[in-house]
Write a structure and sequence with these properties.
Length: 148
């Protein structure tokens, strides 16, 4: 909310007054002064880096050696897991292949049925002789009786 003409100045309307950060002020002890910025020299920075590197190296050396039995157990567990995943993938691939083969067989059967229907229709279109006409009629009659 902006201060209006009756609220006084902006600085008076603020609840807290900003203070400089602690690094710019003297501490409670009069003999200590916190510097605003400490500018370490190159030697100081190099020494700090070497010290950090040595600390990391000491931490690494203090780490106990890995037990070969534990490593072998982890390797066997990992191999078992990989084998299970491979078996699962193989089963899934086999199921997909079986589904594709079944779909292809169904499609082939449908095409064969359609071809047979076309051939039957073509053969029924023009019976050449009276005997063929009688045979076709008898076949239709037999099919109709079989459906009933």
């Amino acid at each position: 909310m902006r201060p209006g003409p009756d609220m006084g100045s902006f600085a008076e309307s603020r609840a807290t007054v900003r203070r400089p950060p602690a690094c710019f002020t003297q501490s409670l002890h009069k003999d200590k002064f916190v510097a605003a910025y400490k500018d370490p020299s190159f030697q100081d920075r190099a020494a700090a880096a070497a010290k950090a590197k040595q600390k990391a190296l000491d931490k690494f050396k203090a780490k106990p050696a890995v037990d070969p039995a534990v490593l072998e157990e982890k390797r066997l567990a990992r191999e078992a897991k990989e084998k299970a995943i491979a078996d699962e993938r193989a089963a899934k691939a086999a199921a997909i292949a079986a589904a594709k083969a079944e779909a292809a067989a169904k499609k082939a059967a449908e095409e064969a049925a359609a071809e047979a229907a076309r051939a039957e229709k073509a053969s029924r279109a023009k019976p050449a002789t009276a005997a063929e006409m009688k045979a076709a009629r008898d076949a239709r009659y037999a099919a109709r009786k079989a459906r009933q």
